[in-house]
Design brief:
single chain, alpha+beta, Creatine Amidinohydrolase, Creatine Amidinohydrolase, Chain A, domain 1, 2 domains, 6-stranded mixed sheet, 4-stranded antiparallel sheet, 18 strands
Amino acid sequence: MTIQLQHVPFPVEVIPSIAPVFPADEYITRIDALYARAGTDWVAVYGDREHFANLTFLTGYDPRFEEALLLIGPGGRRVMIVGNEGCGYVPLTTPWIDVLLCQSFSLAGQPRLTAPKLSDVIAAAGIRAGVTVGIVGWKYLGETETDDPRRPAFVPALIVHTLKHAVGAQGGVSDVTAVMMNPVDGLRAQNSAAQIAAFEWSAMRASASVFNIVNGTKPGMSEYKAVAEMRYEGDPLTAHVMFASGHSNIVGLRSPTPRRIETGDGVTTAVSFWGSLVCRAGMITKPEVEFFVTYCEPYFKALTTWYESLHICAAGGDIYTAVTLAFGDADFNSMLNPGHLISFDEWVHSPIRPGSTERIASGMALQSDIIPYPLPEGLSLNCEDTVVIADAVLRAELQADYNDAWQRIQARRAFMSSQLGITLAEEVLPLSTAPAYLPPFWLAPQMVCVKTA
């Protein structure tokens, strides 16, 4: 594989001003699917500001300050337990669900005289002694991490304790988080055409924000000023906006500071809206042969290998091995899994692990998260975008119901092939505006890596 640096104009897209309308009946379908697969009398889904994704996927509701607990029970029972402020917000996002107030979910010091006890609220919802409850936390433990994977792990002890007390010795409480988050057949690994369209809209906006930063960053600016170039318009964030620069160790998770950007700095930025993260990292310089040959060539070979290895039924372990080998003799490799599932949260799970036999499946939304590591201090390089995997049936649904998004996706596939030399399987649908468009040198932002042979 031969990699060169070539001038490629940025593929400008017109972003619709309004996000596609998400059908409310799909939430009902998801809730019913969770209830059926959990196999318990009740299902309790936990969420808070940081760990909102399962709730949002199921209902459209995202807690802003408080905890929340969705209860799904027999006879189509659906109840959202929230604190004081959630009582006003749930009807705006999820008007079809019953709301119960538990003031213990409110912020400290707020009123607690009306409904302070979770046990009373759970009883009012209908949970009784002798029933079984499956709990969905924000992640789950595998068999190598615990002696009892059925024991709820990532949910507040108050909720677990209260539910155990409510169902008593004749009932049972177990962890069913894998039904939502298993990397192969979890509900959040199976995105519909409507969800793909929503994520595509977010990915376009994240792309625009990142490349506004890349194109606008100049020596002498503060990091704050560089990030202001993104022109943020209020999109809900999956992760905080990231920016780091300097001559020492570049930590990509960092937020911007007042530091002044200098020529020769390493630099990285990432913007993540619901369903997509876009990251670019490089150097505040014009093209340099040594950096390109030593770092950009092996990195882009690995990135290209990732894209070209993706297809339905590909084993995650095979993709991991292919990407690892593509780095060749370079002194760096992928810091974490080269690719993972993405959703309303930036990292759901990953079938791409050493030795994994889990296979890529239709409906997956995947992040090309190949972080080169270790790099010498002061150097930075990265290129992250989002794709979805869609079989013929799902592609037909997307084309029929969201044709504008479909046409943009097809244009991106053609761009990657004709301009970047990357050939995708027909089921790989890029959501970001400029997938794999990597300018390593930010003072020449249209000079990008291209596979030429």
